[in-house]
Amino acid sequence: MTVDRSGLFIMCALGKGGKKLKIYKFLTMYPSSEDKYSELRDSNGVDGLGKIINEPRIIKGRESWRRHFYDDFPKAFNLFKFDLRLVGICARSEDEWKKYFPAEHKEKALRYRPGLFPVHYSKNPINRNYQEMMELESRYLEEKQEHPFLTDLKYFGRILWNIIMNDVRSR
Q1: d(C-alpha 23, C-alpha 77), whole Å
Q2: 139 and 105 in contact (C-beta within 8 Å)?
Q3: Which element (helix H / strand E) includes 12?
Q4: Is 85 left (phi over 0), alpha (psi -120 to 50) or beta?
Q5: What is the C-alpha to C-alpha distance for residues 70 and 73, in angstroms, rounded to an integer?
Q6: Among 61, 81, 84, 86, which is most exposed with the fewest C-beta within 10 angstroms?
Q7: How far lies 90's CA from each of 5, 93, 137, 158, 169, in Å?
Q8: 85 with 113: CB under 8 angstroms?
Q9: Where are the alpha helices (DSSP H) in 3-147?
Q10: Could you tell me the CA-to-CA distances from 62 to 27, 57, 163, 165 in Å, in that order?
Q11: Which residues contact 167 (CB under 8 A, 6 or more apart)?
């Protein structure tokens, strides 16, 4: 993780084929928050978006940035560089893949570019836990293998519907 003076958070993540990517976001958490992820994940648990429950690392006043996706605006740069697809499995660090995801799931997911809009947003209510998140990601990857374009179109439609009509938001 890197934070530059402009308030950008730069996450090192794995892309298609394991290619190392720099994913850009506006900073909404205190610097060095990544170092506390494992500890908080173990103590607080994660929801179906992979987000820490009762997240203490968010900078006061920036909660709305996350809720309204403002923190993700810089990811448009990654989209235009073709590092990301519009829809897909969210970008994860090498360490996160190693610690929390089965190797087989990682292998399937890294056949494709990560998504600007994670597939988790396609379900409402949002997955309640890690197991539901894994099931949804696995189902998406199976469908994508059979019908890549139609699968992304279907999930993108569901995601837009949930964001606009059901007020599905990040925490």
Answers
A1: 9
A2: no
A3: strand 8-14
A4: beta
A5: 5
A6: 61
A7: 25, 10, 10, 16, 15
A8: yes
A9: 37-44, 63-67, 75-80, 94-100, 103-109, 130-146
A10: 9, 11, 19, 23
A11: none
pLDDT tens digits for 12-62?
999 999 999 999 999 888 777 877 888 888 898 887 667 788 888 888 888
Ramachandran area for residue 105 (φ above 0: left; ψ -120 to 50: alpha; else beta): alpha
**Residues comprising the chain, all counted:** 171
Among 4, 44, 130, 171, smallest CA distance to 138 is for 130
* pTM of this structure: 0.82
Per residue in 49-105, pLDDT tens?
Answer: 677 888 888 888 888 887 778 888 999 999 999 999 999 999 999 999 998 899 999
Task: Extract the tokens encoding 63.
Answer: 């909660």
Q: What are the φ and ψ backbone dihedral angles of 59, each rounded to 5 degrees?
A: -70, 130
User: What is the amino acid identity at position 15?
Assistant: G
